[in-house]
Amino acid sequence: MSADPVPADLDLLYDDVEEGLRASVRSLLADRCPWSAVLERVETDAPTDVALWKELAAMGVAGLPVPERLGGAGATLRETAVAAEELGRAVAPVPFLGSAVLATTALLAAGGEAADGALARLASGEVSAALAVPLATAPDTPFPQTVRYAPGAPGSTSSPDSPADGRAASGTLTGEVGGVADASTAGILVVPAVGADGPGLYLVEADSSVRLPVTSLDLTRPLATVRFDGAAARPVATGPAAADALHTALVSGAAVLASEQLGVAEWALTTTVDYLKTRYQFGRPVGSFQAVKHRLADLWVAVSQARAVARNAASAAVHGGPEAALDAALAQAFVSDTAVLAAEEAVQLHGGIGFTWEHPTHLYLKRAKADALALGSADRHRMTIARLADLPPAQWEA
Amino acid sequence: MSADPVPADLDLLYDDVEEGLRASVRSLLADRCPWSAVLERVETDAPTDVALWKELAAMGVAGLPVPERLGGAGATLRETAVAAEELGRAVAPVPFLGSAVLATTALLAAGGEAADGALARLASGEVSAALAVPLATAPDTPFPQTVRYAPGAPGSTSSPDSPADGRAASGTLTGEVGGVADASTAGILVVPAVGADGPGLYLVEADSSVRLPVTSLDLTRPLATVRFDGAAARPVATGPAAADALHTALVSGAAVLASEQLGVAEWALTTTVDYLKTRYQFGRPVGSFQAVKHRLADLWVAVSQARAVARNAASAAVHGGPEAALDAALAQAFVSDTAVLAAEEAVQLHGGIGFTWEHPTHLYLKRAKADALALGSADRHRMTIARLADLPPAQWEA
Amino acid sequence: MTDPAPLDAAAARARVAEFVAAHDPRTTDPAAFLGARFDAGLAWVHFPEGAGGLGAPRALQPTIDAEFARLGAAPVQREGLVIGLGMAAPTILAFGTPAQRYRYLRPLYTGEEVWCQLFSEPGAGSDLAALGTRAVRDGDSWILNGQKVWTSLAHRARWAILIARTDPDLPKHRGISYFICDMHSPGVEVRPLRQLTGEAEFNEVYLTDVRIADSQRLGEPGEGWRVAQTTLMNERVSIAGHAEPREGGVIALVTELWRTRPELRTPGLHDTLLRLWVDAEAARLTKERLRQQLAAGQPGPEGSAAKLSFARINQEVAGLELDLLGGEGLTYDDWSFRRPAGIPFAERVPGFHYLRTKGNSIEGGTSEILRTIIAERVLGLPAEPRTDKDTAWKDLPR
Amino acid sequence: MTDPAPLDAAAARARVAEFVAAHDPRTTDPAAFLGARFDAGLAWVHFPEGAGGLGAPRALQPTIDAEFARLGAAPVQREGLVIGLGMAAPTILAFGTPAQRYRYLRPLYTGEEVWCQLFSEPGAGSDLAALGTRAVRDGDSWILNGQKVWTSLAHRARWAILIARTDPDLPKHRGISYFICDMHSPGVEVRPLRQLTGEAEFNEVYLTDVRIADSQRLGEPGEGWRVAQTTLMNERVSIAGHAEPREGGVIALVTELWRTRPELRTPGLHDTLLRLWVDAEAARLTKERLRQQLAAGQPGPEGSAAKLSFARINQEVAGLELDLLGGEGLTYDDWSFRRPAGIPFAERVPGFHYLRTKGNSIEGGTSEILRTIIAERVLGLPAEPRTDKDTAWKDLPR
Any idea where the Acyl-CoA dehydrogenase/oxidase N-terminal domain is (chains A, B) (predicted)? Predict the structure, then answer.
């Protein structure tokens, strides 16, 4: 009766290639993305650092799991997760999650010529993409119904632009999606929509949609409401294949997001420990007080565990299948709480200074809490675990 | 829409009469019931200290809420709760909960001549009583169905004894109840049973039942399985009045039990603090280490809150009604966790010595955990709160 | 005293009725009303005559306040007066000269003069006694230089209570003096301090050669730490002011959401909600019990616990609110740098609740400091080994 | 080395196959089989030749153990050998003379001689270095007097590893020496120590004028603390021995109960169950990651965290098991004073699980000590001010 008693022995370590990638990304971010620059940028009208994204793309970060034949790095979600960890550690305001994870894994799962064309553009860094679902969408959410697909050429109400890649669209999209991450700077939108034939996944040139930025709790990850008003759209998958591709993207996103959250938690822990070694109160470093030490020890334990859990989810995502969904849910259920705890402890243990705008901790607190809600809250993921690990809810009369 | 926005301002303090009662009970217990005596006694075949119970009865503790005309103290459940607090602090092995709380409040709620007769016997200490329900029964459990009532004189299969008070029984009981607290030493059983006319509450002379002791997790509160095999029974309430009386008894029991749990928690906190002032490790009292201090401070906060919550439940139980049920559920939900935490922290912070049989802490740990299960777990009481405070469960597809 | 018989509750109510009859709150200018109330000794009834009181028992004040409210008077405690009423007034009463009392208390009470508190410094937060702002004697006055931080109301205040170091050669607690600082003095510069909410609720205050007359010193030179203790104790005592209904606090944010938005409910968050409801109710009853103790003239040590509990509960409620809202929780209202607009807390966006409550465990004494205070002063646990108590302030490591 | 080429995994497996071919595990006497395995260097492959090993990389041992298991050999680690194999052997290897290695290692490995550990004392638990058992030199031997506690297996052991104070005039860490004690010596008295479970799993050991030859000293006089560190480090390292399947640990107690007893399920306990499932899975994966790190020759500091996590999870699982069972959880099997009967933990009654797991955070290093170790050794946080490091042991407060 127990859930899968002997899981595959997934590789939970980082190999040399992954450590090399980490070092490159970290070094670039240290140069180009110190927190002071992030804080300054997010108060402008252009919170996303498009130039930095192009530099990351030049290192291959924009298309890590994209095959080499499409100009990608030909790596896997394991390497993608390593990049996410470093980008999380820097709260980098780049469209990695929306473009290089969610849109990319949706297109990879869909496959076919149109998807390949879009993947090549993403991997090169020419444009970024967004998956047009609310960022809070959990992997086991029913297929979205707010955008409708209609076959035939764009009508008079649509944008006059035809797709930039020169190929004709097969139909149009109409509807609205709120809370889409990384949409404002995207060139391509990957849009789940329903037509007469059921669910489909469509490619839309972003400038044929209307994107209304919303003020985001996480200053470093802008959200937008995206409206389609007869926008030209090209299908990349239809029917069950579309639902599968979307599910794969959300599961992969949840898995990789856990590594981003791990990066956030690691930053919070490390920064707090460093601060408390040098902050004196009562004639002693604050970090020498036992209650503080024990809390940081507990946090270190949680972060160590988050590393194993996130690594496990990334490795499982490479293989896919139901085990990947369970491991992604596990990762979100565990690492969301850990990252929020780490950021909250960072604020608290920094004392007053951690409560100010001029200290970086709040950027991480906001990212941690927003990440915990992104792709489903820990609570939602625990319900997924209940289903996949055969631990059914109680039957209880209200 | 919110639950009762302005609750009555219940008196949450102890008045002078209550403090006097506390002092008397505490003084008697200090003399007659040190933990070493408790530990020795609970390993014998007679874990209940019947002699001590008679001394407590002489002080009025056996019939605190019983009217003076029946030989009781004419007090309320507030005073009863103060006695419970002291008996909990001493893990006294006496049938207070079963007799002076559960059976007594059931009989008081039922009223009538038969109930009065029994109450007079209980208050005097002549006999003790038990309420024949499993100790784990939550107040909102459906009326028990395991014992059947049949009208008419006891038949050939019943015990040959007629009720000791000389009055004829009106019928017989058949069936079994497991996990009944304080049954083995009881003279009177108050038994919920169902007959052709629905629920009823019956008085049975205990020696006309078969009582099989079971090994109890809480060494200081013996449990028994009680079997009725055509036992002579006399009704004290029938129909809705019986269900109401049982519900009142369980709500009152839950309210008073919270004060017993408070006593357990107070003992655990005080004893641990005292020990850590004198136990040296690393050249310092262990109680001077900050992590230990902060845990004990948090525990003190919880115990302070438990005191307010238990006091509130006792005061509300005096008034009865739905507010009493909510306040009892609140008390159980909060104080159960506090008492268990206090006892667990006591074991942990005593280190090795707290893990041994020869130190009293384990008596409190077992009492705390058993009390948390008694009259419904904290989890069950939270569901009661959901119902009574208008916080309905989620509708969720499994 | 003009009244030979000691004031009792009935007499107090009669005095209020008489006062209100003479000063109709609907037609009297609010400041004039309060000034007259001060002159009548009904401001702080336990203060001496001429200082806003009648030298009557402190326990009568709630009765008086309630009677004023019943008769239609506006509450005395208003936005902007919290430091003056709660901290400055009792300190001036306890340590001020008759001239100081006469000069400061009346306009403080009427709200004509706003007060702020210049205690914390960037290097002296939890370890307030380590403060480094220097006050050097110069004839009949003192010259102050230093930086203060976390100052609410500084930009609106006429006066500040301030502590500064007057003798760096003494151990840190012994070289501090306490002053009343005119915020309009040359050399006082107030700069807004922006918090992680985006708003500047607090200020930094830079003191450059600020001259304070020696007549504005409170208490003896070098006695400032002891005077400051009075200020801080009053800060914490003020918490348990008035009775609060069930769900009267921050918990209402989530109970109302739960009741009005059934589509947000999940089973896991139901359990979290119920646990928080229980905790909030326990904290509320504990505060109510403390209020009853104070009213009965039996102050308990639970006051220090209230802030600790409410900080945690507020933070957990705000976190749950975001979890419940999911995608809606990913947004914010406005990050622009501005002063608070005076909108009630409950009406702010959920993201603001989440961020602002993070300060509850830092401002006015961190939760860590409060735990240490409880452990040492309430439980009597030994202090940590201290190296900073007998060393000259100037020689302390920092 | 007899083999000039360094041993690799394939060669190691070949050696095992060759060995098993020569010693059929089905027909060879177990002790003889293990003796031969020791002689073949396949006991601890990283130990030197003649001491049970081949001087090969430690990482090969899991391969060898797995191959033995695959070919039908009984596991080496058996009940009763845990201290000998896990603690005594590596210490004897590291500090023993050739004669000591020759005398002790082989019968230790075969199980012919059981070992116990005489470290803890009633006054020296977490602060082990404060121990007071005296060893006084007397010619070629030492005379020991003192009391040890928490000794498992003492009643079955032939040998003990023991630390005692040889110079009370030195600071506590510097006056300790390390011995091998013959448990059959005159003056060694073993008394069962009863735990809160009712059973006597451990012992107290009284040493009265026990004579130990100087040749049974391990390491130099006064170096005992350093030698003991080797012992204790091996105790903690041994935790991450083998891969464990999902739900392979204590969590299965509640997952199985949940699946097989649907009538016990409640919504609140479902949430608790899922949270614990997540925590258990995170701890399992962390242990698995540590195992992979060790196998890859990259040992991480996560070992010290594993014990901390599992202690907490075991305790919470056992608490949940009782909460789920409700009334059934109020019973126990047997409180009589007895030695453990060797029944597997999972098959004991739930009350035993609850009580026994309380020891998990005390035995083998309390959770508090482990947190301090993590904070100081892993995070590099400063030590507390210490007064006991440079004071002569005899002058320490206790």
Answer: 18-126
Question: In the prediction, which pLDDT does C301 show?
Answer: 72
Residue type, A211: R
How large a percentage of chain A has pLDDT more than 90? 91
D288-328 pLDDT, tens per residue? 998 888 878 777 777 778 999 999 999 999 999 999 999 99
Between chains, do A178 and C125 touch, taking CB under 8 Å as contact? no
Q: What is the pLDDT of residue D264?
A: 96
Give the three-state DSSP class for B316: helix
| Residue C204, domain extent | 115-221
Residues D235, D360, single domain; the answer is yes
d(CA C19, CA A262): 65
Measure CB to CB from residue B290 to each of A291, A383, A393 and give the nearest one.
Answer: A291
For the record, the structure tokens of B305 come out as: 């809150």
DSSP calls for C186-233: TTEEEEEE-BTTSB--EEEEEEEEEEEEGGGEESSTT-HHHHHHHHHH
Is residue A397 scored above 80 in pLDDT? no
Give CA–CA dist B333/B128, Å, rounded.
Answer: 29
Does B289 contact chain A (CB < 8 Å)?
yes
Instruction: Give A269-282 pLDDT, tens digit per residue.
Output: 999 999 999 999 99
D289 in C contact zone (CB under 8 Å)? no
Same-domain pairing of D97 and D126: no
* CB neighbours of residue D148 within 10 Å: 28
Q: What is the mean pLDDT of chain B?
A: 93
- Angle at which helix A16-32 crosses helix A50-58, to 10 degrees, equals 150
- Write out chain D residues lying below 8 Å of C268, CB-based: 270-271, 274
In the 3-class helix/strand/coil scheme, how is C123-169 assigned residue by residue?
CECCCHHHCCCEEEEECCEEEEEEEECCCCCCCCCCEEEEEEECCCC
D149 within some domain: yes
Q: Which residues of C are catalytic?
A: 235
**Tell me, what's the pLDDT at C241?**
57
C169, C200, C221 - which closes a domain? C221
Chain centroid to CA D108? 14
Q: Residue B45: is it exposed, middle or buried by C-beta count within 10 angstroms (0-12/13-18/19+)?
A: exposed
**What SS3 class is residue B116?**
helix
Q: Nearest Cβ partner of A393 from B293, B294, B396?
A: B396
Q: pTM here?
A: 0.94
Domain boundary among C62, C84, C110: C110
Whether the per-residue pLDDT at A7 is higher than 60: the answer is: no
DSSP bridge partners of C118: C162
> What whole-number distance in Å separates Cα of residue C334 and Cα of residue C197?
9
Q: Which two tokens stand for residue A237?
A: 């998958």
Instruction: With a threshold of 0.85, tell me whether the complex ipTM lies above it.
Output: yes
Q: Are A94 and A129 in contact (CB under 8 A)?
A: no
Q: With contact defined as beta carbons under 8 Å apart, do B20 and B12 qualify?
A: no
Contact yes or no for C302/B303 (Cβ under 8 A): no
Domain of D39, CATH number, reads: 1.10.540.10
Could you tell me the two tokens for A159? 């944008």
- Residue C85 is assigned to a structural domain of this protein: yes
Give dist(CA C125, CA B315) in Å, integer. 43
d(CA C327, CA C329): 5
Is D386 part of any domain? no
Contact: D268, B382; criterion CB under 8 Å: yes
**C264/A105 Cα distance (integer angstroms):** 29
Q: Which residues contact C393 (CB under 8 A, 6 or more apart)?
A: C130, C165, C168, C169, C170, C171, C172, C175
Residues of chain B contacting A276 with CB distance shorter than 8 Å: none
Q: What is the CATH number of domain B130-242?
A: 2.40.110.10
Per-residue DSSP letter, D246: T
Clarify whether residues C233 and C372 are in a common domain: yes
Mean pLDDT, chain A, whole residue set: 93
Q: What does DSSP assign to residue D212?
A: E
Examine residue C276 and state whether it is found in any structural domain, yes or no.
yes
What is the pLDDT, as a whole number, of residue B277? Answer: 97
